[in-house]
Design a protein that fits this description.
By secondary structure, the protein is an alpha+beta fold. It contains 3 helices and 3 strands. A 3-stranded antiparallel beta sheet has the order 1-2-3. The mean pLDDT is 75.
Length: 98
């Protein structure tokens, strides 16, 4: 099964969650957020999610089961698939296309 990323988001600032921000913190948060968003478009915005979703898997990449059903979308718009087996309860997404 796929593992979750252990790295922290690069969009977070040390003062995220603080109620009172200094003028410098407000400026940095606004400017850095806009810069990051402009340089790193989301999968939905770039059309990459549509390209990835156009490849429907025929079997589970982990166990080889062909009993798959669609199970919603991730926050980035990537289709989730669920394996229909009593012994295995797994959900996966297509990560890359070779």
């Amino acid at each position: 099964m796929a593992t979750k990323s252990s790295s922290k988001s690069r969009r977070e600032t040390p003062w995220d969650g603080d109620i009172e921000l200094t003028p410098m913190q407000k400026f940095l948060k606004t400017e850095y957020g806009e810069h990051c968003k402009a340089r790193h478009m989301g999968l939905n915005e770039s059309g990459e999610a549509d390209m990835i979703n156009s490849f429907a898997p025929k079997h589970c990449p982990y166990c080889g089961s062909a009993l798959l059903i669609k199970r919603g979308y991730t926050a980035n718009g990537i289709q989730r698939y669920h394996i229909l087996r009593r012994s295995k309860n797994a959900i996966f997404t297509i990560k890359c296309v070779i």
